[in-house]
Specification:
Elements (H helix, E strand, L loop, with lengths): L25 H6 L11 H6 L24 H4 L3 H4 L1 H18 L4 H22 L8 H20 L6 H22 L3 H4 L6 H10 L10 H8 L5 H23 L10 H4 L2 H8 L3 H16 L9 H13 L8 H6 L21
């Protein structure tokens, strides 16, 4: 044992032994970093946005002789986000957005982080130029769903006292989700045979406007039938109302447990969204009826008082002339006076219970 200048012995520091693996990916070996050997993409490569490749195929054991090959599908289910960097970034973005709701005092910080992560997620997705197939359709479908949730929360979580800006943001969020859904719609058949088969099933159910049983939209239909609008506008609003009544029906059947309401904005025709953009009163009233569905999910962290805020904003924008059209949405909120409805969303923690 070595000694110092005073003659006392100093302890010898031994390196801690470890088992060296020779089965790391090519990139980790090239960069001389420890590989965790996760398949199909290791964490190091996923973090650095590198293409992960293994020289010895799917084998991830300590040696080629002692480990048996594993099929890629054994790893994909728990590691969707690891194999799809855009999905990982959106999960992180949504987590930051959730923190902005949980901690109002740090809202700006977390909201800034959420926006940056979402931008990165969309950039990675757009630059990937993905062709939807059986390998990536599930990550893309999950990404689409989370993106819709994020966009909806961004719009309804306020504060936004400018109704025009609010509507523009709302429509932009729908356009964003509709663009992603154009891609996933080509893989409906594949999704129908996967763990996410309930997604196309719900979409097909909402897309049907026959056999409607609810009465929530009956008065709105009656008012619309006597409205002085063109045939194309009438058809667009009627189609949106049909999908909306189907949404009410499915919400009732599931007792509000399923978030099928999120599909309605995607199913409505483009012509209807154009009417909303032009601030067509009839189209705005239809949107207020949809806000009733949002209000029923106000305990969801990404909605909160968004439905109430939307109804109040539309009521004030339209004025007293349209009170008869807005009577039912306002009555659901327990107020027939639009001036009593919130002008901005409260910045407070989540409601208990």
């Amino acid at each position: 044992m070595p000694t110092d200048t005073t003659g006392s012995r100093t302890p010898t520091m031994h390196r801690r032994g470890h088992r060296k693996s020779r089965n790391g990916c090519v990139e980790c070996k090239r960069r001389h970093v420890k590989c965790d050997e996760t398949h199909p993409t290791c964490i190091q490569c996923n973090t650095a946005q590198l293409r992960c490749m293994y020289a010895s195929g799917w084998n991830s054991g300590p040696s080629q002789s002692s480990a048996s090959p594993r099929a890629p599908t054994e790893f994909k289910r728990p590691f969707f986000s690891l194999s799809a960097p855009y999905l990982m970034q959106e999960i992180l973005a949504l987590s930051a957005l959730h923190l902005s709701v949980l901690y109002p005092a740090q809202r700006e910080f977390y909201h800034h982080q959420a926006s940056g992560l979402q931008t990165r997620a969309l950039t990675i997705f757009n630059n990937s130029h993905l062709e939807v197939n059986a390998e990536n359709c599930i990550p893309i479908a999950i990404f689409s769903s989370l993106l819709a949730m994020h966009s909806l929360c961004d719009v309804v979580s306020g504060p936004n006292d400018d109704f025009s800006n609010f509507l523009n943001s709302f429509i932009h969020s729908l356009d964003l989700h509709r663009g992603i859904r154009v891609i996933t719609s080509h893989s409906w058949r594949i999704l129908g045979q996967s763990e996410l088969r309930h997604v196309p099933e719900a979409g097909e159910a909402l897309n049907r406007t026959d056999n409607l049983v609810g009465k929530e939209c009956d008065e709105l239909r009656a008012l619309l039938s006597s409205a002085d609008i063109g045939h194309a506008s009438m058809t667009a609003c009627e189609t949106a109302i049909g999908h909306l009544q189907r949404t009410f029906d499915m919400e009732r059947l599931s007792d509000g447990r399923d978030n099928t309401f999120a599909i309605w904005p995607v199913l409505v025709p483009t012509e209807y969204m154009d009417l909303v953009m032009k601030r067509s009163p009839e189209a705005l009233v239809v949107l207020a009826y949809f806000a009733v569905v949002l209000h029923s999910h106000r305990r969801e962290w990404f909605i909160r008082e968004g439905g109430r805020y939307l109804i109040g904003s539309i009521s004030r924008h339209l004025g007293s002339y349209w009170d008869n059209w807005m009577a039912w949405p306002n009555s659901v909120l327990g107020s027939s006076n639009p001036s009593q409805l919130p002008r901005s969303l409260p910045q407070s923690p989540l409601p208990a219970g």
